[in-house]
Specification:
The chain has a single domain, classed as Vaccinia Virus protein VP39 (Rossmann fold), CATH 3.40.50.150. Helices cover about 45% and strands about 20% of the residues.
């Protein structure tokens, strides 16, 4: 009997972990919306660090791919004070949270947020000066082709920045690798893999920045 109870607890715990992981990948429930709001706060230091490696002009047009709860959109709008910012996410729940977060900027015509896929961005060629992807590229369905799709919507000389809070080979990687590859089913790249990803897609001067103590990675490439 004790063995069956233990097994039951393991099954329930495993099911709960799987459900939470799915909500991290694509929020779709009350929990998912709560996670999106929570990530607005938890990802802010990471985002600020990553954005410190690029220049955003006051009149820039920017796009945040996988915008989640919308905090990065707000940050981009505070940097591109005379520009515009677009956000896109494949989760309707995330789009709702992001729109609520940025409703004032949306009302002023400075921000727009849409539901859609990175694999087929709903924007014309050469639209944006800056494209960001914060804590999202892990889950893109066809990473090599998807970064090429981002390249399509960048203006000549535009900047693409991937910002992530973990990478393969980081300190205590043995703890992160089973979570990333197993539970989250995420693409888990080394810093060199990241640099090569952008270079092979046609970006110029691809560079990688590491915050070793925290395990963060920022990858920058230019059209």
């Amino acid at each position: 009997m004790v063995g069956l109870l233990t097994l039951g607890r393991v099954v329930v715990a495993g099911g709960l972990m799987t459900y939470v992981a799915r909500q991290c990948r694509k929020p779709s429930s009350v929990l998912g919306r709560s996670l999106a709001r929570g990530m607005n706060s938890s990802h802010e230091p990471l985002t600020r660090w990553g954005l410190s490696h690029i220049t955003i002009a006051p009149n820039a047009s920017a796009l945040d791919v996988g915008c989640g709860g919308g905090r990065t959109i707000e940050t981009l709008a505070s940097l591109a004070t005379e520009g515009t910012v677009a956000g896109i996410d494949y989760s309707a729940a995330s789009v709702a949270v992001a729109r609520d977060r940025n409703r004032g900027l949306i009302a002023r015509g400075r921000v727009r947020i849409e539901e859609g896929s990175v694999s087929s961005l709903p924007f014309p060629d050469e639209t944006f000066d800056v494209v960001t992807a914060v804590e999202t590229h892990y889950y893109w369905p066809d990473l090599s082709n998807d970064v090429r799709e981002v390249l399509r919507v960048l203006k000549p000389g535009g900047t693409f920045t991937i910002i992530a809070e973990t990478y393969r080979g980081r300190t205590n990687d043995w703890l992160y690798r089973p979570l990333m590859r197993g539970l989250l089913r995420a693409t888990y790249l080394t810093p060199e893999d990241h640099r090569r990803l952008l270079s092979d897609a046609g970006y110029r001067d691809a560079a990688v920045f590491i915050e070793k103590r925290r395990g963060w990675v920022c990858v920058v490439g230019y059209r």
